[in-house]
Amino acid sequence: MTVLRTMGYCFLFVMVPLGGLLAAYPDQIANGLSALFGFGVTRGSLGIAFLFLAAICMRVDMGIRRRAQSSAATAG
């Protein structure tokens, strides 16, 4: 459990698979999202969205880590 908290849940389970998909199929994902939303989605906008999602995941992971450290400090 400590290893998962160190790496970050959100990073491990969201960003790694999503980053792998975006690296392997950037044009297909951009075209699919363009068709789904009805407006043009470029590879650049996918990159910006990925960085925004990474910032959110880091914020979530820091909150998880902070709560775990505070509970460990009060228990120990």
TrEMBL record:
Membrane-traversing stretches: 36-57
Record keyword Transmembrane helix present: yes
Record keywords, A-Z: Membrane, Transmembrane, Transmembrane helix
Designated name of the protein: Uncharacterized protein
Organism: marine sediment metagenome
